[in-house]
Design goal:
Helix content: 40-55%
CATH architecture: Orthogonal Bundle
Number of domains: 1
Number of helices: 4
Largest sheet: 2 strands, antiparallel
Strand order of the largest sheet: 1-2
CATH topology: DNA Binding (I), subunit A
Distance between the termini: 37 Å
Strand content: 5-15%
Structural class: mainly alpha
Shape: flat
CATH class: Mainly Alpha
Amino acid sequence: MNLVIRPMEDLFFSDEAFIKKERDKARKLRSSQWWKRKRSTGICHYCEKQFLPGELTMDHIIPLSRGGKSVKYNLVPCCKECNTNKQQLLPIEWAEYMSRLKE
């Protein structure tokens, strides 16, 4: 079995047309009843703290730059701080980051 090691840049999805299309989909979903109900809980998906619904942002669990899509199962409400800190991390990378913070 041959194992191929790729540079970190290859892990990022660079098709700008794809990213633009997915961002447009996310904008449309932001005005949907589904998103309003999801956000109305006021709970950040990552830190699980309570916020006013208007303070929560939409985050792609798998970032667009890493091949994620703007579909309901990939979108979660999160606080601005978590969204900023998560950046383009995948769920496993975010979990590792959070565990290091707790140490």
